[in-house]
Amino acid sequence: MVSSGLLKFVSPCWKPSLEDDDASGRAKGLLWYKNSGHHVNGEFSMAVIQANNLLEDQSQLESGPLSSIDSGPQGTFVGIYDGHGGPETSRFINDRLFNNLKTMYGADFASDSRSISADVIRKAFSATEEEFLSLVKKQWLNKPQIASVGSCCLVGIICSGVVFIANAGDSRAVLGRSEKSIGEVTAIQLSTEHNASYPSVREELRSMHPDDTQIVVRKHNVWRVKGLIQVSRSIGDAYLKKAEFNKEPLLARFRLPKPFCKPILSAEPSILEQKLYPEDQFLIFASDGLWEHLSNQEAVDIVHNYPRNGIAKRLIKIALHEAAKKREMRYSDLKKIERGVRRHFHDDITVIVLFLDHHLISRNSSRGPPLSIKGAGGV
Which reaction does it catalyse (predicted)? Predict the structure, then answer.
């Protein structure tokens, strides 16, 4: 559980606005937020804080039709795209992935599919990956650095009483489930992460590349794939997927000493499909910048113990207090640090909290006004 001391420390500093009528969210310095809104399955709150020179986190919430077919399913789609090496891939995913999902559902509709499926999600990831690699090929000679840009990709979809969690990379989705017997809300992690810091990921890489003794390398106390990158799955990162992009004019620091025959990284997501129950209260989706400073249970306790309005912004603020404390500085001083330099203290952080209304979820055909909102539109 989050410490009472931390909650008391942050509480006096926090005064969320009573309402947020701005449909596209608001920006304040490096912070963008949408305090509250409604999706077809309940309420939501979103926030983004920028640390890099260019914001590398992108995100979206889509509520309403999940298909290009009029009679297709309705639901809620959440995407968290944590870029690395630049913002190009995360921006591309933000523009293309949901459209690809709707298209893939339409293509599968003829096969008698009436709801979203893991196969449709997998195809949407694959189509987005192929589109981006095609873009890299087109821009290779004029903009070779785009081959070293990639993004983690976390997707959550609520449809017909079921939640799908698809993840490639190390962003995280956590469910808050009410435990009436103990009067608390328990954190349940729903996403599988693909980061070389986990022994299971290193073993997976070694089993896939048995002849490569350098497939994972520990540098400066951090495990990295080929000594270059922490995540083992992503969209983009063409330089570690196709040997044709791992050569000049790519910068020398990204070029491997030996050519490779098969992709080192994968865009294949881990997918969980799980029924939602009345005790399931909310879902927290966030890039790894949040989880560097808060545990799953701490985040769930914060969402459970405070008003819904502005809760995503509150999670970010508490994480920044923790980041400042780790550097033995005051939060007020951290806020004065400009983007770029700020990255030495914390990462870009994106948070989307979905509250679950089971009266709406139980209506499998729940319909409401369509909503499309992109995080950090104002930053």
Answer: O-phospho-L-threonyl-[protein] + H2O = L-threonyl-[protein] + phosphate; O-phospho-L-seryl-[protein] + H2O = L-seryl-[protein] + phosphate
Tens digit of pLDDT per residue, the chain (379 long)? 445 445 444 443 333 333 444 667 899 999 999 999 999 999 999 999 999 999 999 999 999 999 888 777 889 999 999 999 999 999 999 999 999 999 988 766 554 456 799 999 999 999 999 999 999 999 999 999 999 999 999 999 999 999 999 999 999 999 999 988 888 999 999 999 999 999 999 999 999 999 999 999 999 999 999 999 999 999 999 999 999 999 999 999 999 999 899 999 999 999 999 999 999 999 999 999 999 999 999 999 999 999 999 999 999 999 999 999 999 999 999 999 999 999 999 999 999 999 999 888 876 555 667 899 999 753 4
- Could you tell me if 272 and 200 lie in one domain? no
Q: Find the domain containing 131 and state its range.
A: 4-191+233-374
User: Is 379 among the domain residues?
Assistant: no
Q: Is residue 207 part of a domain?
A: yes
| Gap between the Cα atoms of 314 and 47, Å rounded | 9
| Neighbour count for residue 121 (Cβ, 10 Å) | 23
Contact call for residues 217 and 210 (beta carbons, < 8 A) = no
Do 293 and 287 form a contact (C-beta atoms < 8 A)? no
Rounded Cα distance, 91 and 102, in Å: 18
CA atoms 222, 291, 344, 326: torsion sign: negative
Closest CA to 354 of 143, 26, 67, 45: 45
Distances (CA, A) of 274 to 159, 164, 191: 11, 7, 11
Q: For the chain, what is the domain count?
A: 2
